[in-house]
Specification:
Length: 111
């Protein structure tokens, strides 16, 4: 079974940083593009970024510069580095690929 498990969320102050991880299993990780999404309170969802098997990446324009996606194919893990976090970034963050969407991790930005 394809499994995607995000972790690394938590409570962070405005201006702070977090690094999210998404551990994958059940498929040939190195052959698939991986993406991060977020789901805001009220269920609005936004695509954040996609990283290809060769580690080339694209970003939603508003996220570009503050968020960085990366991957470690040896560990079957995709990461999302987030900096300069704002209260508006509060959401559940999850990773996904063409076959599945993972469980999310809550990020709360608040003082």
């Amino acid at each position: 079974d394809v499994q995607l498990q995000a972790s690394g969320g938590g409570l962070v102050q405005p201006g702070g940083s977090l690094r999210l991880s998404c551990a994958a299993s059940g498929f040939a990780f190195g052959m698939y593009s991986m993406s991060w999404f977020c789901e805001f309170p009220g269920n609005e969802r936004d695509w954040i970024s996609t990283i290809n098997p060769d580690s080339s990446a694209i970003y939603e324009e508003a996220m570009k510069g503050r968020f960085t996606i990366s991957r470690d194919n040896a560990k079957s893990t995709v990461y999302l580095e987030m900096k300069a976090l704002e209260p508006e970034d509060t959401a559940v963050y999850y990773c996904a690929m063409s076959l599945a969407r993972g469980q999310g991790t809550q990020v709360t930005v608040s003082s």
